[in-house]
Amino acid sequence: MIKRLFDIFVSLFGLLAASPILLPVMFLVWRQDGHSPFYIAPRVGRDEELFNMVKLRSMVINADKSGVDSTSANDNRITPVGQFIRSYKLDELTQLWNVLKGEMSLVGPRPNVKRETDLYTLEEKKLLSVKPGITDYSSIVFSDEGEILADREDPDLSYNQLIRPYKSRLSLAYIEHQSFLLDIHLIWLTVVAILDKQKALNALNRILISRNVDPDVIRVAKREDDLVPTPPPGAVNVVQNRDGSVT
What we know:
- 50% of the residues lie in helices and 8% in strands.
- The protein is mainly alpha-helical.
- The chain has one domain (2-221).
- Helix 5 links the parallel strand 3 and strand 4 (133-135).
- The longest helix is centred in the first third of the chain and has 32 residues, at 2-33.
- The N and C termini lie far apart (39 Å).
């Protein structure tokens, strides 16, 4: 109940406070091609129920028709205004509407497209037992997802090999240790990460250590080493093709 009341208050206040920034950017998105400044993105929520996530559009119209789900920093579908939107995570602010409606929470595992959740292992299915969120451990650690996938021949396959394994493990760790105080801490660190990612990672590392998270997950969360292909949680093999099938 406290989490929901907090979600309602912060999302309502956030939408009102961000409107002086969002409204001009929405106009610029519309002005560049004459289409809606919003992208309505179908996502899988709690208990595998589909909902429409509202994002400030950063790509060309019908970008999703390409069949590519993962977005690299140099993706040619991103518009000039979209580059600015993504740089400051403005596309995430409109998701406060989904939080206000109760489809998402401020803090929780990031919602995914059905094509990806259909590939989840039994262990990863636990991510669908709670409301998805705007941020959590993994959102801070992999806030540079676009840069990681830049110049990859197959961004979706690279996502499943490099990011998904530890993104899922970090989100599972959040579910295991979630609390109201942790949510407040993660919201603050998400803001810090936009300005100083290393400072946010250092603070996050201390949180993970205090909660006895798997040392291998803590090591990767430091982001000091190159990411290498790893099996997703609940699997023994690395994903080898776009259908994501693992064993």
